[in-house]
TrEMBL record:
Gene source species: Thermomonas carbonis
Localization of this protein: Cell envelope
One GO MF term attached to the UniProt entry: disulfide oxidoreductase activity
Alphabetical list of CDD domains matching this protein: TlpA_like_family (cd02966)
Name of the protein in question: TlpA family protein disulfide reductase
Signal peptide feature range: 1-25
Swiss-Prot/TrEMBL keywords: Cytochrome c-type biogenesis, Redox-active center, Signal
Claim: Signal is one of the keywords in the record: yes
Residue span, Thioredoxin domain: 23-181
Length: 189
């Protein structure tokens, strides 16, 4: 297949109409960013999946991992999640893993969202108390992290808008190309 991920995403009609969505006003102001930066190994634990299994980034080493933090009240997040699911379905699990971390929704809201996303193939986890999000210094939604096959942060997009779609696609493509270039040596090694 000669389709690049960009062509695949464009062909799928990926139009994430995002806008900066700050956390609710009740969130206390923080000093300088304490979250991970590009090149850092991010916090590994991302909560429990729908089956109750702990999701650890270490289990996906050797794949590109896209982690999106979201909440049910974030309209742009709800537009992004189906597109990430399409991306996962079309890219498959060999090179890419998409994990969506729900942050601090009530039990009722979370259960309702899980019913609505029943057929999704992306891994859905839950951060009930916001501690996982705090480890990533999440201050705005949507918040997307691209983690390379080496387990280090390759890119981060915080509170992005529709005008950032091209850059996000470029980042995912870049990291996937790096993965593909290293895959033969990883298989042989």
């Amino acid at each position: 297949m000669s389709l690049t991920l960009r062509n695949l995403i464009v062909a799928l009609g990926l139009s994430i109409a995002m806008c900066a969505m700050p956390l609710p006003a009740a969130e206390p102001a923080k000093a300088a960013s304490a979250g991970p930066k590009k090149g850092d190994v991010p916090p590994a634990l991302l909560g429990k999946d729908r089956k109750g299994d702990l999701v650890d980034l270490a289990q996906y080493r050797g794949k590109v991992v896209v982690v999106s933090f979201w909440a049910s009240w974030c309209g742009p997040c709800l537009k992004e999640l189906p597109q990430l699911d399409l991306l996962q379905k079309h890219a498959g699990d060999k090179l890419l893993k998409v994990i969506a971390v729900n942050v601090e929704d009530s039990n009722d809201d979370y259960r309702m969202m899980m019913r609505q996303m029943k057929g999704f193939t992306i891994t859905m986890t839950r951060d009930r108390d916001g501690k996982i999000a705090a480890g990533y210094d999440i201050r705005a939604y949507p918040n997307l992290w691209i983690i390379g096959l080496d387990g280090k942060i390759a890119a981060n997009h915080r509170g992005y808008g529709e005008d950032s779609l091209e850059r996000i696609i470029d980042d995912i493509n870049r990291v996937l190309r790096e993965q593909a270039a290293l895959a033969p040596s990883a298989i042989a090694g």
